[in-house]
């Protein structure tokens, strides 16, 4: 379980990171918390020749509010997300999801940026970012650009991120005050990836659902934004028949693998169960 | 092989060494520094036997390169007892409450407990169980480990209270 040899870089600025990534192309990888990359390097599934450590890079940590928007730096750890007062007050679904990721030791190291950037369909934050309608902030040799989380993922480990680019943070509009939310994750044990998971954010007004957003984790090659299921909820009282319909629509977009977490048919059904539970809890929480 | 010089603080002492960039922290601790308290269990970031305290965080030292720990402040289980050999309250708790059988997971359990009690000095049993959920034990069934953590929390809280009086 010894990784291949590599050259180690520890730059101080985003500019230096971009320069290193541009120079070394696909022979270079950035390392944030390292809890996805190092296990892959041990298995020699990844063998970067240059490893660019982000821990000293200025300006990549923290949660900040700017009017109605929240920006989270890529190097903000899951532990820091869990502890953030700004997120607890404005967007508690992030805390709820982060607490279901891995275990305490991993959460001290694992970062939001690492979780969303690498395109591992098992990661929880990508679907959550799609549910929130978040934007990913990228910086490369040609400057900065923004990509919608719902457009970022192409296939497992294939994303919109180009050689030389670094994901520096995510930004999203605060969900409306009084919104309901839930992240429901079925997993076999602490530390496991989801068999299936669902993120739901919705808002109610006078007993009627005025906005809804549903996204699914680990039941496809990429996180899945459940547009039709979300749309089915809007304008209803979230009655049983409507929830049944949304669950069926969510199930219909899944394409899970059959693996140790169960056969594909089971995982599709579990995506439906997680969606149902998340909608019901979000409805209860909505004010 | 291209080696990197690393320098860090381990159990209060400054240590240095030349390592390959790919050297994992657990190997540097065990093989270069002779600190064999942190154990290599699963090597896949699951079992927590290699847990050490690094800059105020519990980390799995099998999932960190030694070069990443440059300038870090690290405590291993060897750094827990007093210089005269008096056991730390957490070590005493594991002894008094039979919080171990084979003992393989114990160094990681103790280091995780150390950070857990710094952050939450009076955890409920449920908080203890979630707090040590990154550490696996195949012997005890965890019951006595929870009791050991509770023992340590009580003893540390008593000590803090006495110091305040």
Explain how this protein is built.
By secondary structure, chain A is an alpha+beta fold. Chain A folds into three domains: 7-53, Uridine Diphospho-n-acetylenolpyruvylglucosamine Reductase, domain 2; 63-173, Uridine Diphospho-n-acetylenolpyruvylglucosamine Reductase, domain 3 (2-Layer Sandwich); 180-285, Enolase-like, domain 1, CATH 3.30.390. Chain A has twelve helices and 14 strands. Chain A has a five-stranded antiparallel beta sheet with strand order 4-5-10-6-7. In chain A, strands 11-12-13-14 form a four-stranded antiparallel beta sheet, sandwiched between helices. A three-stranded parallel beta sheet of chain A has the order 1-3-2, with helices on one face. The radius of gyration of chain A is 19 Å and the shape is globular. The model of chain A has no long low-confidence stretch (mean pLDDT 97). Chain B has helices spanning 25-32, 89-96, 106-119, 125-131, 143-164; strands at residues 3-10, 13-20, 51-54, 57-60, 73-75. The radius of gyration of chain B is 16 Å and the shape is globular. The interface between A and B is medium-sized, with 29 and 31 residues.
